[in-house]
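FAQ: What does the model actually see?

It sees only this:
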Amino acid sequence: ESLPEPLIPCRNSRRWSTTELTIDPTATLFYGECCLAGRHRHHNERFRYDLLALNLSVRRPSGRELMREKILLEPARHTPASPGVLGRYEVFATALILTPKEARDTLFQKIGPRVGLFEEYGLGLLRLPNDAGLQCRILSRRGETAKGLLRELCSCVRQTIKGVPMPEEFPWR
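And it is asked to produce this:
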């Protein structure tokens, strides 16, 4: 499991991230990442960063590539707040659930796509190529909502694979 705290890009920042995952065909991995629009509530930095580039690839131990994704946001050139990108949402998150096909099909049925009350969030789900597992994309108006959904997804995966839910979040977070 990898579920880091959300990324909050600051004014004029540039972030280039490359994540390379290698997974055995019999293993299961939950990988999540979450990005906010910036420190807009107190610093007026909504989409004021220069560049956000997120590169992700997944391989088998043999070196065979299963999937690759690149996200590039440059707010000065094209606002992420436009329709077809983030629209009215402030947060986007991705969860990769890399797992064998049998578990993938069970998890697809349990999770399913959904929209939150008053369109607080949208959650989309797709099967990855090469029977690698699932990818879930979350668009949300608040970071807490996206983070909670990622934890919920991680707990669902844990319950399905190991029979044990994710522990409660520490109260001081």
